[in-house]
Amino acid sequence: xxxxxxxxxxxxxxxxxxxxxxxxxxxxxxxxxxxxxxxxxxxxxxxxxxxxxxxxxxxxxxxxxxxxxxxxxxxxxxxxxxxxxxxxxxxxxxxxxxxxxxxxxxxxxxxxxx
Amino acid sequence: xxxxxxxxxxxxxxxxxxxxxxxxxxxxxxxxxxxxxxxxxxxxxxxxxxxxxxxxxxxxxxxxxxxxxxxxxxxxxxxxxxxxxxxxxxxxxxxxxxxxxxxxxxxxxxxxxxx
Lengths: 114, 115
Prior knowledge:
A: mainly beta, seven-stranded mixed beta sheet, 50% strand, B: six-stranded mixed beta sheet, five-stranded antiparallel beta sheet
């Protein structure tokens, strides 16, 4: 069974640029959630994708967008990068259908915005 | 507003003793609580959870206690082992978005187990 994988591991961008982060969900999982973890903080919910549609969003502006593909992998896109976007971005996959479905996290992508 | 708070950024415990990590929440709509453990360069790993209809859940060395009236939960690790050294996150959920929860995390507590 393959766990959740994310790419790239690290990324450095400059302010104003755009970035795409990728996540492959655990085998058999159909839902992907994205979280942002700033230094010294806990993860913050960005949004979730289920059946290729956005299915709930946290307090993040529209320049944060995403996609989910038919194989349930997902992308997180951030436009017009700001310095405060520097963080660890985590994706978590789960299988909807259980009462309280456990979310399995990937190792994250460390984004640095200069 | 910080709906889930872990007020101790760090905790140091002797190997073999009990580790107690605390978490407070403000949203009375939370109905499910989880603890995650995170090692450096890895994603958070699910440890144990508790539903709001219970006040205790035990899994091996790990026990979670929930006090709804105080809006407080705690994680007890007995006995503590060096491999338990990690950052522990408390998380809560109220919102069911067609199935999968939206998790609200605390800031984390770094637990260090000393030999």
